[in-house]
């Protein structure tokens, strides 16, 4: 099949390229924008069965006037002394002055005696921020306008003020985020161009992936947006960045697979057309199987209860599908037309290296497969042991620079009130049947809530103005509201206690940021326990179909899962162990699933396919392992270095979770490429020998000469 595809693409190269250009233009012009299906709400990705979502829905109906977000102005004396009655009056005047400015998207400006800390250290002004979506840029402008008015209005008063809250924090760190992702984008292009330039010594080969993948990115974005509109899918605002990384990661992999094999065929004496036909024939099956495994891994995310995963899966599957079609059609068409010019001006491609590093490594694997398998396996197991200490961290603010205005104001607020002051736990008391709540019921529940586990302070109850059956009581926890301790408290103890304290005929629903993260934690744990086994089983099935074997897929999938655990363990050792962090970002396991399990499987498939090919040429298992590493090793190394280097740049960002993500994915790709695929898998395959291909005997020679026949000519070793 792939030989016929290769002949068609090479024979109709200009038609293939023209068809691609027309299709790309049509898709880009007619597709909606990706922003049309983007959502920024964490709770919008949770199923309705979770209590925090039910609380949010109740709040939307009972308190429709509630703001999208809140900016908290924290006022204190410049000399650190307690606020005086005159200071409190001045804060009230500040609230009125700011309100009089009619700053767009703001409302409320609530302050007063209840907004003064018990120790008189600070007084707050709560400002409602309202917009169509929580990520509306107008909210950022509102915070900037608030800050601009603080200095002039407090001049000469001896008071200082700062604005805290999620929106204020984003304002403070917006430049850091933008510069970090800009650096990643630039680094990706530099690494791709630079490394391929070093490998092939050709600017044409170096620029080819960047140009083609940029076009594919536009096509993919349009198709994902169209699919989102058609099937009513919401996606995270991070999708654009994830799509970019996935496409450059797998796209560069597949293009390198083709270029390395094309160069090999040209060295063997094939003309440019025959070389590409044979390349598509030999590598097409590998790329298709690798893409199929990645697509399956992404589509398994549809089984997730957390909507973020479910919406991400189809989008990334579309991206991989587009890249697969590109790799089997557009790239071969372009390269077949360029021929040897794709490696211009270098002439080094014409000569096979006599004593390359990959040949020496392959020789070591072939001579001592037991030792290599034991050493590489032991390294992965030792790193995987770190998973036993894994803790999830939901506190994004702790990972941001702490010298910003929002960070300083948040610390002042928490010192004056309670650790949970910036993100209260919202408890909604309702009769559930429309019957009005009595004042006594609300008062009794508010009083009883003060005795609930972990509650430091109970704020005054609010009655709904539109639904007399609902009241809201905000609780300030004595723990950081996004810490593991607070999340565990809400999930395991606080909810049950509040449910029990609800007066007869009423029920309590617990919401707010801590409750949302508690539910995300539960959903996350459930999803990973489902996704990983199902994905492993389906990837094993694809490998079984590719290799016609039941043995090899088993240890290949075990290797992939072990590599996943080793990557997470290495991250735990560094950040929880050496740096003393309370945990690693809760998003990390799914990030590793996307970039280490799914994409890292590419390297395994490329290597195992080459091992089978060398076995079919008549080489004994140890020799096949040696030659397989020699020929597939440079491709795996180059692809791994590019992807690992791209993520490694994130470690330079002054934001903790970006550093963690950068390190984790970089080390995961390094382990995938240089430990698992380069050493562990070929050594284990050489050690198991012919039994690795049972029952299909995929290592038998294609000409029927039997497994143990020697190659007919030296040129066969280079195929």
From TrEMBL:
It holds the Pfam family MMPL. Keywords: Cell membrane, Membrane, Transmembrane, Transmembrane helix. GO terms for cellular component: plasma membrane. InterPro entries: MMPL_dom, Mycobact_MmpL, SSD. Residues 699-719 are annotated as: Disordered. It is found in: Cell membrane. Residues 206-337, 556-686 form the SSD domain. PROSITE patterns: SSD. It is a multi-pass membrane protein. Residues 699-710 have a biased composition (Basic and acidic residues). Its main location: membrane. The chain crosses the membrane at residues 12-34, 180-200, 207-227, 239-262, 283-309, 315-343, 369-390, 528-547, 554-575, 590-611, 632-655, 661-681. It comes from the Bacteria. Belongs to the resistance-nodulation-cell division (RND) (TC 2.A.6) family. MmpL subfamily. This is MMPL family transporter.
